[in-house]
C-alpha cells in the first residue's frame, strides 16, 4: 500500500473517531455507559506492524503528533504512546508469530493500554476520584466490545485495500511488459 493511501486512510479513521465522539460523547460523570473510539490508532497498528522498526516508530510519532494537535489536544500523550505501541506490536509479531490471533490480541492489548495508562496517571495525580471498577464498567467495557467489532471491520477494509493495490500493481507491470515487448518487436 502506498504511503499516501495509508495516511489518507488514517485521516479518515481519525475523522470517524471525532464524529463518533461528537455524536455519542463520553460520560465522564460515570453515570452512563460510554465508548471511547480508537479507530485511527487501531488502523495505524494494523497498517505498520509489517514495516521495519524505524518506519513504525516514525509513522507512530507523525500520527501521534497529528492526532494530538488536531483531534485530542493532549500533546505529549499520543506522541509518546503511538510509536511505543507501533514498535511493541511489530516486535511482538516478529518474535512470536505472524498469526492473526497474535495480531488481534496485541492490537486489543495496545488499545486497552491506551485507555488504562491515562486513567492510571490521572488517578495518581488526583484528577480522577472514581474507582477503577466503576471506570472499567462505565467506559472501558463498551469500548472493548466496540473495538472487537471494529477490528474485524478494519481487517476487512485493509484486506480489500491491499488487494486493490496489488491488482493495480499487477496491471501496471503487465502494461509495462506489453509495452516492452511491443518496443522490442518493433526494433527487429
Summarize the structure in words.
With 188 residues, the protein is mostly helical. The chain has one domain (3-187): Arp2/3 complex 21 kDa subunit ARPC3 (Orthogonal Bundle). The protein is 81% helix and 0% strand. The protein has 6 helices and no strands. The radius of gyration is 20 Å and the shape is elongated. The protein starts with a helix and ends with a helix. The model has no long low-confidence stretch (mean pLDDT 90). Keywords: Membrane, Transmembrane, Transmembrane helix. This is Rod shape-determining protein MreD.
Average pLDDT: 90
CATH class: Mainly Alpha
CATH architecture: Orthogonal Bundle
Shape: elongated
Radius of gyration: 20 Å
Query: Helicity, in percent?
Result: over 70%
Oligomer: single chain
Largest beta-sheet details? none
Keywords: Membrane, Transmembrane, Transmembrane helix
Protein name: Rod shape-determining protein MreD
Amino acid at each position: 500500500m502506498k504511503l499516501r493511501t495509508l495516511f489518507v486512510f488514517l485521516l479518515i479513521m481519525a475523522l470517524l473517531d471525532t464524529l463518533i465522539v461528537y455524536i455519542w460523547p463520553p460520560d465522564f460523570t460515570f453515570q452512563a455507559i460510554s465508548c471511547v473510539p480508537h479507530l485511527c490508532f487501531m488502523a495505524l497498528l494494523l497498517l505498520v506492524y509489517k514495516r521495519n522498526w524505524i518506519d513504525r516508530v516514525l509513522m507512530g510519532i507523525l500520527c501521534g503528533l497529528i492526532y494530538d494537535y488536531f483531534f485530542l489536544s493532549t500533546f505529549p500523550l499520543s506522541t509518546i504512546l503511538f510509536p511505543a505501541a507501533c514498535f511493541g506490536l511489530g516486535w511482538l509479531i516478529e518474535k512470536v508469530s505472524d498469526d492473526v490471533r497474535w495480531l488481534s490480541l496485541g492490537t486489543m492489548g495496545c488499545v486497552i493500554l491506551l485507555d488504562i495508562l491515562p486513567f492510571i496517571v490521572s488517578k495518581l495525580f488526583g484528577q480522577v476520584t472514581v474507582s477503577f471498577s466503576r471506570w472499567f464498567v462505565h467506559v472501558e467495557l463498551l469500548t472493548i466490545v466496540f473495538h472487537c467489532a471494529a477490528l474485524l471491520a478494519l481487517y476487512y477494509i485493509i484486506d480489500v485495500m491491499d488487494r486493490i493495490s496489488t491488482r493495480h500493481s499487477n496491471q501496471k507491470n503487465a502494461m509495462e511488459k506489453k509495452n516492452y515487448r511491443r518496443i522490442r518487436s518493433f526494433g527487429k
